[in-house]
Design brief:
The chain is of the alpha/beta class. It has 16 helices and 15 strands. The strands form three sheets. It has a nine-stranded mixed sheet, with helices on both faces. The chain has a three-stranded antiparallel sheet with strand order 10-11-12, with no helix packed on it. It has a three-stranded antiparallel sheet with strand order 13-15-14. The structure holds iron/sulfur cluster. GO terms for molecular function: 4 iron, 4 sulfur cluster binding; coproporphyrinogen oxidase activity; metal ion binding.
Length: 385
């Protein structure tokens, strides 16, 4: 896998039909008028950011990622307007990967054709499960039947790069339902699958149930058994495991998400979006009123700006890079084995202990987690922060 350092663009669309029971993302209800107002403000932010960044050379942006929320609540005309505003203001590669996150039951044949024509060439769908009971438990608005229909329609509309998100360790699920879900999802032959564990987040409906004692978390050992059995099955189905939670047919890794794990720069636009650009981490405001107010005055809607220190850059490169199955190369982080372990001499012994336990592989080129190491990835990554 090449380490592409071209910048990417993330566009946040903070609207959903209704809140899922586990969701802590920045998203809420909307009507057509609010969505249109948001698209106009977003186009304004694009112009503001382009003006502010015009003094710096940022190279060619080769990915655009519409995330949410539910970006497929925007019409294809609105998505097309945002893409053309981006192209008018930034240097966008002609073969850029342009991903749209979507949710089944918010797509129609017409909207899919429209998205494809507007330049979207990768469709990501929040499937989560192919079991209608589990979908209901998660508070999703769709059924397994909607997924099957929408994937077929997406193919017909010309999408040849589709990701399906699948969740495991959901309350009331089992190892068996997890593997049945994988069988059902892989039978749709997506090019990419994200397979990740449910996290109980504060402020969600599930968290409240948990506090009332009405929701039992899936025990850690079962969560891990689901992960390893799921990973094995996905590999048997021809998907390469390239990041802790991500699997792809060869050549279909998410170019955009790889930017996060490779410390490539990205510009985040929209409500609450974060950027890593010009060596700074920037986070946008999270209140819609503030977002409209600032963009309306021609001001950047930034809430926080943190300039990365040299240590931030090293620590983040290790932390995010270890998420990749291929791990990190010293060359990309600090230049060489000697320099890397001189910098981290205080944790060298602990890292070697993880290696002896079979959790980490350390060689002359770099370092990577083993399959067992993934189970305690946070503890290993924390060594380098
Ligand atoms: S569709 Fe996604 S972003 Fe929207 S509420 Fe559900 S989990 Fe959250």
């Amino acid at each position: 896998m090449t380490t592409n350092k071209n910048p990417g663009i993330y566009v946040h669309i903070p609207f959903c039909v209704r809140k899922c029971n586990y969701c802590a993302f920045l998203s809420g209800a909307s009507d057509e008028a609010l969505r249109e107002r948001y698209v106009k403000a977003l186009c304004e932010e694009i112009r503001i950011r382009a003006r502010l960044m015009s003094d710096h050379a940022h190279g060619v942006f080769d990915t655009i990622f519409f995330g949410g929320g539910t970006p497929s609540l925007l019409s294809s005309d609105q998505i097309a307007r945002i893409i053309s505003e981006l192209k008018a203001n930034f240097n966008i590669a002609s073969e850029a990967e342009i991903t749209l996150e979507s949710n089944p039951a918010t797509l129609s044949m017409e909207s899919l054709r429209g998205y494809r024509q507007s330049g979207v060439n990768r469709l990501s769908m929040g499937v989560q499960s192919m079991n209608d009971e589990i979908l209901k438990r998660l508070g999703r608005i769709h059924t397994a039947g909607d997924v099957i229909r929408d994937v077929q329609n997406a193919r017909e509309a010309g999408f040849d790069n589709i990701n399906l998100d699948l969740m495991f360790a959901v309350p009331d699920s089992s190892l068996e339902t997890t593997l049945i879900d994988i069988e059902a999802v892989t039978s749709l032959e997506p090019e990419h699958i994200s397979f990740y564990s449910l996290q109980l987040e504060e402020g969600t409906a599930f968290f409240k149930e948990f506090e009332r004692g009405e929701l039992k978390e899936v025990p850690d050992e079962i969560d891990r058994a689901m992960y390893h059995a799921g990973t094995k099955l996905l590999k048997e189905k021809g998907y390469e495991h390239y990041e802790i939670s991500n699997f792809a047919k060869r050549g279909y890794e998410s170019r955009h998400n790889l930017k996060y794990w490779n410390m490539a720069p990205y510009l985040g636009l929209g409500l609450g979006a974060s950027s890593f650009i010009d060596n700074s981490r920037v986070m946008n405001v999270c209140s819609l009123d503030e977002y409209f107010n600032l963009t309306g005055k021609g001001l950047a809607p930034s809430a926080e700006v943190h300039e990365n220190s040299e240590h931030d850059n090293v620590a983040e490169a290790v932390f995010t890079g270890l998420r990749k199955v291929e791990g990190i190369r010293y060359e990309d982080v600090l230049g060489s084995y000697e320099k890397f372990w001189e910098y981290y001499s205080d944790v060298f012994e602990e890292a070697c202990e993880y290696e002896r336990e079979g959790k980490l592989i350390i060689d002359e080129e770099g370092m990577r987690l083993t399959s067992d190491g993934i189970d305690i990835s946070n503890s290993i990554m924390a060594l380098f922060v």
